[in-house]
Amino acid sequence: MVVNSNFTGVLKKFSGTLWYLVKFGCVTHCVMEYFGDFVFCTGPSMEPTIYTNNVVISDQMSVWMKRIDKGDIVIAKLPHDRNQLICKRVTGLPGDRVWAGYSYQKVPRGHVWLEGDNKKNSTDSREYGPIPQGLLRGKVICRIWPLNDLKIFS
Amino acid sequence: MFRIFKSMLVGIPISITFCDSIGYVARVDGTSMQPVFNPDRNHQDYVFLNRWIIKGDDIGLQRGDIVSLVSPKDPGQKIIKRIVGVEGDVVSTLDYKSNVVKVPQGHIWVEGDHVGHSMDSNMFGPVSMGLVTAKASSIIWPPSRWQYLKSEVPVHRLNAIITS
Question: How far, in whole angstroms, is CA B77 from its chain's centroid?
Fold first, then answer.
């Protein structure tokens, strides 16, 4: 009898913790998917704006509210590898004429043209062409790491 | 009142997460996938879109699967098409700017089953796999149409792949 009641107590505690974890996970998922999250940047392509090992906050709301403008820094999925994210600046919107390395090109409907700030060392739309807006994930709003170099991108 | 608010505060994120990671039900509009979906114009089919299967590094998709994806032309629109070619395939196209296309890495070639009535890769070219949101696994409504969706390329496109 004693053992039995003790067992149900443990079970209750366990399921309580599990339920708490589920709630926590779901709220985190929603915040990261629809509001904003932290992105750890590596690579030289956005120098001198963002350096390697910087942490930035990306704002997902701007994407689903379609408030992406020319000049914004965005996080997007790589067109040929959906598991990899890139951080570039929007330099062309649909209808714009952009310089694609050796010729001018018009950005098609529903696409954006992305380029890194470090033009000499960046793999971007000049190489793989305009990317569909459906691949955009967020707009970079500020840098929070390193702490002595906080910066809001506008 | 406070309790209702509190349960909403928990319930909404849980249901969103469920839809995002397991799957959800969506209505199919239009005739581009006839005869698989919406065979007659009076009824619209509801399909279960499986999102679980496309999670992870190795996407579990193959030729013949029906997928829903964000339209490359309009990010606000979702379209439902069948995969005809996967990365590395050389596809013979219908009415595209070139007769044969090699599907690049990380891309797929999608087509509607209803040839000529579909906005698909024959119009906008190969699409990035990152745009795929889910795989359609079954028709769940109306009940008379209940069925699992088979993964098969339609007969008229069986020889679409030149080399793979």
Answer: 12
